[in-house]
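Worked example 4.2. Below are the chains of a multi-component assembly; read each line carefully before continuing.
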Amino acid sequence: EVQLVESGGGLVQPGGSLRLSCAASGFTFSSYSMNWVRQAPGKGLEWVSYISSGGSTIYYADSVKGRFTISRDNAKNSLYLQMNSLRAEDTAVYYCARDRDNHVFDYWGQGTLVTVSS
Amino acid sequence: DIQMTQSPSSVSASVGDRVTITCRASQGISSWLAWYQQKPGKAPKLLIYAASSLQSGVPSGFSGSGSGTDFTLTISSLQPEDFATYYCQQANSFPFTFGGGTKVEIK
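Applying the procedure described above to all two chains together yields the following structure tokens:
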């Protein structure tokens, strides 16, 4: 069974940093590209970042470019999102999502809430 | 960036009704479109990919159509478990973008 489990969310002050993790199981993690998608409270879905299966290709949404860094450790079946210079507008539930094929997200984690507030 | 516009933003319907949700892309995306269902407090669930292909395990009452800029998600006969919010997503090019969502509510 495919499972994605996010962790690392919490309350952080504006300007602070947080590192999210996503532990994958039930599939060959190293064969799949992965994404982070977020959802602000009561709002819609926003794609955040993409990383290819080997980690060589990375993309970011303009809203996080230069502040967030996506990475992965295929030996540990884990995906990460390093978030720096956090802003109030980064407050959201962050989901990791498997890239099924051609950038469709077929499995999602349960999400981890990041709250940026003083 | 490709903008995705969904309509309506909400719809009230009864069990057994046929419901149609539309999604329009600001530029052509061929068939690179997916549909997701999200229930409160839960992660989104993939329903349709490549505009009209049903994801494994998704009931056949869901169907998708369209290509280019105009797409449709149809629920042929609304079931109690179908009350949720639905999102379209373009998978044609970065940055991937979602529609604003359509909330299907009980009439």
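Take a moment to check your reading of the output against the notes. The interface with chain B takes residues 35, 37, 44-47, 50, 59, 61-62, 95, 100-106, 108-111 of chain A (CB under 8 Å). The mean pLDDT of chain A is 97.
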